[in-house]
Amino acid sequence: MEILEGRLNYLVHLSLMMIGLYGMLAQKNLIKKVIALNILQWSIILFFVSIGAKKGATIPIILHEVGTKAELYVNPLPHVLMLTAIVVAVATTGVALALAILVYRHYGVLEEDRILRRIGEK
Amino acid sequence: MEVIPGQTAVRYFMGGWNPPFGIEYLVDSLNGPLLFLIALSSLLILTHFKGLIRKEIGEGKRHEFFTLFLLQITGLFGLAVTGDLFNLYVLLEVASLSAYALCAEGERNAPFFAFRYMIFGTVGACMYLLGVGYIYALTGSLNMLDLKGILPALYGSRALFAGACLIFSGLAIKMALFPLHIWLPDAYTSAPRITSTLLASLSTKVYCYVFIRISLSLLGPPFFSRYPSVFLVLGYLASVASVFSGVMAFLQKDIFRMSSYLVLCEVGYILMGISVMNRFGLLGSLFQLVNGIIMMGALFCLSSTFLFRLQGRHVEDLRAAHRVLGFPLCAFFVLSLCIVGVPPLPGFFSKWFLLLGAAQNRDWALLFALLISSGVNAATLFRIVEYAFFSEGRPLSREGVSKGEYVSLSFFLLLLILLGIGSEYVVHKALMPFVDRTLGG
User: Fold this and answer.
1) DSSP of B260-293, one letter per residue?
2) B200 close to B260: Cβ distance less than 8 angstroms
3) ipTM of the complex
């Protein structure tokens, strides 16, 4: 149990990442793959944000009551980096779904094994 | 903007914020030739496909296609010039997303293989981002030069090792190192010809450059002497990659699939040079990077010419093609000499440096892998030359070659010959300062 103390964020991040990886590789439906891709990216965003957290710290906006000591504010740099990563994740999801639409228009199915069978037959 | 005297590097601080707080763009003797080659290569590719694009991309889609094309080139420029780890992730995604979209506009099976490319590529980018997260959590800095000073104190840390391995795995997926190369042949074969030319010649090589940059400038040789297992794995994977890809290229009937496997071969050579981490190995690796851009660009451009002018993409379709496509086939002959490694063309010098580097390190597996792979490449390419020049029969069609293709092919050939004759100049002026600074300092 001591391993989990203070390290819960890593455990959650790892579980989500593994769920995402499993989904992307083992699921046959393309939309499930896209969802799993999203889960993978969000797990990494969670990791980054969680490493910026501090004990007893508040949100990184300077308040008069709190003062100007840096230890009292959560590290804002991971938050800012992850804003960019969220935008990237959204763009990736957009491209993924557009590609899935193209695949569906072309093959009429969204299951990977049936698509591969169709490619093999041609 | 700051030019550091005595260091031959140009640093540009975005928004005037000094590192390590701001994002910096750094151009030194490793970047400079690469940036020039990206620009030149994309110009030559566009010249080559000026007329041919009409046959592949529909009228209404062409402006969107070229927007994506320019975005991809922007991403590649950014990857080559940035000095900040997170900025590198953003530009990596810009380049990758444009690549996925560019690949999807091709022929029959392109959307599915582009989707598969996207799955693989996003896993790679996420692994890279996680590695950057580990390094950030350890040090608090994201600037490459800054980290170079901070990291040596942390070399015993397992988190640093894990972060570095994650970054390497992510980049290995993006640059298609065996066994993570599975997406590449399908994606490059079914994509539109102009896309696969751009991606094969530039994209894969720029990711190799990113790998080199991170392993040499960020974690220098001291990191690798502390963790020699990384190099062992890398060396063996690179050897297997080059032999496997060589054999797979030999077995292909389709010229484009064969060329995609040759791209994988090149990646193997570049990483072989990194894994020996001595002067000759690094020089061979960097020179192979430089050559590979031009060689693969020329190879794919030539294959596209064969495809569009002869309406055939199989080796057999090239029979007696010298009656119709004399100049492109001569260019193909010179190019195959270069890829195999015949002096005075530059392919010889890069492979020679790699052989010397492997021998200096007593790495016989690498040496034999390189030789076997080159031999198999020779068989693959010379077979095509023989078929095109010496077989009986009539060529498939009599369509001639357009001016744009002549111009770009001549430029590619000229560049290859100049690189070969002037290889000493290029290596001494451009590559050796970087290698000496990395290994000596």
Assistant:
1) HHHHHHHHHHHHHHHHH-SHHHHHHHHHHHHHHH
2) yes
3) 0.94
Name the residue among B109, B118, B126 with its Cβ closest to that of A119: B109
Question: Coil, strand or helix: which one is B84?
Answer: strand
Specify the DSSP class assigned to residue B199. Answer: I
> Is B115–A119 a contact, with Cβ atoms under 8 angstroms apart?
no
- Take residue B89 and report the two structure tokens written for it: 């992730």
Which pair of structure tokens corresponds to residue B266? 């090149």
Q: Is B247 left (phi over 0), alpha (psi -120 to 50) or beta?
A: alpha
End-to-end CA distance of chain A: 56
- Tokens read off for B212: 């080199």
Indicate the SS3 state at residue B4. Answer: strand
Nearest to A24 by CA among B110, B124, B348: B124
Residue B325: which of B243, B405, B213, B230 has the closest Cα?
Answer: B405
Cβ–Cβ gap A96/B118 under 8 Å: yes
Query: What span, in angstroms and rounded, lies between the C-alpha atoms of B215 and B205?
Result: 15
Burial class (CB in 10 A: 0-12, 13-18, 19+), B236: middle
Residue of chain A nearest B132, judged by CA positions: A48
Considering only alpha carbons, which residue of chain B is nearest residue A94?
Answer: B97
Q: What is the full per-residue pLDDT of chain B (441 aa) written as tens digits?
A: 555 555 567 888 888 888 778 888 988 888 888 999 999 999 999 988 888 887 777 777 888 899 999 999 999 999 999 989 999 999 999 999 999 999 988 777 889 999 999 999 999 999 999 999 999 999 988 988 888 888 888 888 889 999 999 999 999 999 999 889 999 999 998 888 899 999 999 999 999 999 999 998 888 888 888 888 888 899 999 999 999 999 999 998 888 999 999 999 999 999 999 998 888 899 999 999 999 999 999 999 988 888 887 777 777 777 767 777 778 888 889 999 999 988 888 899 999 999 999 999 888 889 999 999 999 999 999 988 888 888 777 666 666 777 778 888 888 888 888 888 888 888 888 788 888 877 765
DSSP character string of A12-68: HHHHHHHHHHHHHHH--BHHHHHHHHHHHHHHHHHHHHHHT--TT-B-SS--TTT-S
Q: Which residues of B touch A24 (CB under 8 A)?
A: 119, 123
Residue B117 CB neighbours (<10 A) = 26
